Amino acid sequence: MLQVDMGTIKWVIAALVIALLISYVTTPVVKNLAFKIGAVDVPKDGRRMHKHPIPRMGGLAIFLGFLLSVIICIPAETQMRGLLLGSVIIVVLGIFDDIYALGAKLKFAVQIIAALIVVASGNRITILSNPNIFSSDPIWELGIWSIPVSVLWIVAITNAVNLIDGLDGLACGVSSISALTMLVIALCVAEPDVAIIMAALAGACLGFLPYNSNPAKIFMGDTGSTFLGFVMAVTSINGLFKLYNIISFAVPFLMLGLPLFDTCSAIVRRVSHGKSPMTPDRSHVHHKLIDMGFSQKQAVAVLYVISAILGLSAVVLTTSGELRAMLILLALCVAGAVGWWLFTHRKHHHSGYHDNEPFFGEEDVSDK
To answer: Are 43 and 56 in contact (CB under 8 A)?
Structure first.
């Protein structure tokens, strides 16, 4: 049962529509600006999936839609100011990266600074629900550990969304689904500000998506992908980590399941092969789908469906009793394990690319 009044629903709809319209209208302007300042992905060899220069930095339009919508719809309290200031830092970093291709260490350092600003403003994970069903203590108090845990979560999700930005419309669509999922959950648990923030984010993504769907006219670049991850990470701290029931421990990980899974599997894969976690490869989930013979549009559609299923599962876990939620979670784990086994053991049908070559979808995988 949704614990929300019609006033909140009106603000949610307003935030979504305002962000969508601003993002849609400003994207062509950002596209022209990207060409002028050199934020352009120029195809340099036959491995590129696009044949003509395509501007990056489209995430600036997403940011503008989100920013103006949030300013109009939500009071600028301390925690909100921290989120917006951190977002500005992330977006500026992304713009420079889309133009100059910054080094990974510099980007991580700036992301940590942005995360610390957010944490200092009061956005932090102070408790975690205890996943141990046999424990008499339902929560873990993090104390001083709330600072590093919060920073780690923010930086991890920021980069996780960036890593799935490999096909036209993929990161934008998956982020829209995750934002809408968090919106519904926020309404269920009476967190109106979180719902409005996620409505603004979803609206901004949906306004940009027509330009970014295959064949893309503009890429969101790191300006967009890192911004989306940053906002969802920070907002999930204020919404999802406040839930106290045992099963709520799994909700944030389900809602952001696809980028988190892809990032964790990439790290394990690279480290197990004696490589740095930062070493690029073309073994992400979307690469595997392309290798199986899916087209870009088909691969993106499959990942949209997976994200929607995970999002729906997160909503069900939030609104169900603990026993039912645990059974659903167990079924999801079994289905996921079986699905992944079938996925990894299916014969690949390569599309003319070699395993040691970067895959170029929306972004150059060398940056991922």
So the answer is: no
Please indicate, yes or no, if residue 274 is contained in any of the structural domains: yes
State the virtual CA torsion across 168, 169, 175, 181 in degrees, nearest 10. Answer: -140
Q: How far apart, in whole angstroms, are the C-alpha atoms of residue 297 and residue 168?
A: 8
* Structure token digits, residue 51: 């044949």
Task: Report yes or no: 111 and 158 within 8 Å, Cβ to Cβ.
Answer: yes
Distance between CA atoms of residues 198 and 189, nearest Å = 14
pLDDT on residue 331: 64
- HSE of 169 in the Cβ direction (CA atoms, 13 Å)? 20
Mean pLDDT confidence for 294-313: 85
Using left for φ > 0, alpha for ψ between -120 and 50, and beta otherwise, residue 101 falls in left
Q: Count of domains in the chain? A: 1
Render pLDDT for 78-91 as a digit per residue (tens, 0 to 9). Answer: 678 899 999 999 99
Q: Which amino acid is at 331?
A: A
Residue among 156, 73, 77 at smallest CA distance from 121: 77
The verdict on residue 255 lying in a domain is yes
Q: With CA atoms as reference, report the closest residue to 175 among 19, 330, 318.
A: 19
Residue 172 maps to a domain? yes
Q: Is 40 helix (H, G, I), strand (E, B) or coil?
A: strand
Q: How far apart are CA 336 and CA 136, in angstroms?
A: 30
Query: pLDDT tens digits for 170-181?
Result: 999 999 999 999
What domain range is 48 assigned to?
A: 6-367
> pLDDT tier at 353 (50, 70, 90 boundaries)?
very low
Query: Is residue 1 included in any domain, yes or no?
Result: no
Digit-coded pLDDT (tens) for 230-273: 999 999 887 665 554 444 556 677 777 677 777 777 777 677 77
- 27-31, 78-82, 146-150, 166-170: range with lowest mean pLDDT: 78-82
Distance (Å, whole) CA 53 – CA 63: 23
